[in-house]
Amino acid sequence: MFSDFHGNSEVIHRLREMVAKDHLPQAVVLSGARGAGKYTLALMLARTLNCLNPTKTDGLPDFCGTCANCTRIAQACDLDARFAEAVEARENLRETDKKETRIFVQTHPDVLVIPPDPPQMMIKVDQIRRVIETIYYRPAEGKEKVYIFTDSAFMKEAANSLLKVLEEPPEFATIFLLTENSGELLPTIRSRSMTFTLEALAAEEIDKDLAKVHPEWKPAQRALVARLCDGAVGRARSFDLEAYTGARQHALTILNSALRGGEHGDLFKITESYRPGAEGRAKTEALIHTMYSLLRDLTFIDSGAPELIRNTDITTELKRMAESADFAWITAASDRLAEVERGMRRNLLRSLSLDAFAAGLEK
Length: 363
Ligand SMILES: [Zn+2]
What we know:
By secondary structure, the chain is an alpha/beta fold. It has helices spanning 9-20, 38-50, 68-74, 79-91, 95-100, 125-135, 156-167, 187-191, 203-213, 219-228, 233-237, 241-260, 265-272, 277-302, 315-324, 327-345, 350-360, and strands at residues 27-32, 55-57, 60-62, 105-108, 111-114, 145-149, 173-179, 194-198.
């Protein structure tokens, strides 16, 4: 229920008030960092709109969590697992069918979740076609049709088709558009939606939540995760500190190799371990994310604000690196990292672009 949603209480309050007055906009943009709770919130609202035993908490609409609609919609909560199942089901199809099949997550006939479609990880026009084919039929078992786009990476044609739906959506449908950066959405899509932003939470807030959710974590571990999760409670709760420190060790070697030059043996050993394919992509994304976080910490040290460092457990090493990493170098590194990211989207060989990244930054 809504009491499980940590933080951003004003936004939640406003949305629930709109549901109470039957004024929830038909297109809602939920903006916020990865793990801020956008998807969790969208599914909570989907259950509230369709609950068969509508309840109230704090005087505002909530969901029971136990009726047939609530339980079926809740099956979509583990998005990663449902997404992986859908992708696997497609893999098992005949070649010809595979090409025509798009990825969806649907655990209730009236609630359709539309994730970016692999391998490009973009929302494609065929996915919007499914929305158009179904949205104008009244809900079958619920009261409101709900469509949840989990990402704002739309192919151009897809964005344009979605725009047509948003021009005249049926009164019994609500579309949620989740985004880490609402600027990625077409201005015409944004102007037909209402945007709600889930703000980052303070580290102390996250620490409090972690003490409840992960009582088995040591206080130092909790404090570090609370700083590393960028204020996103979902990221904090599922934070894999071991995987993070592994990626960070690689990131440190790559950055140090660029800062110091010379011997490349260690660097090549690492970059070679970044292979193509889905697993390699996730690993590379984690590495890039970690590098950004290190570069940001170096910036904090250079600007005389070491108290803002997130990787607090390696402060000494970061300070040593900052001695040879000035603002110009950090800016160049961030720019080049953005290039590596763009290259990944075009499926360039990861190990090559990581080597080029380090070589290009050598002092
Ligand atoms: Zn219910």
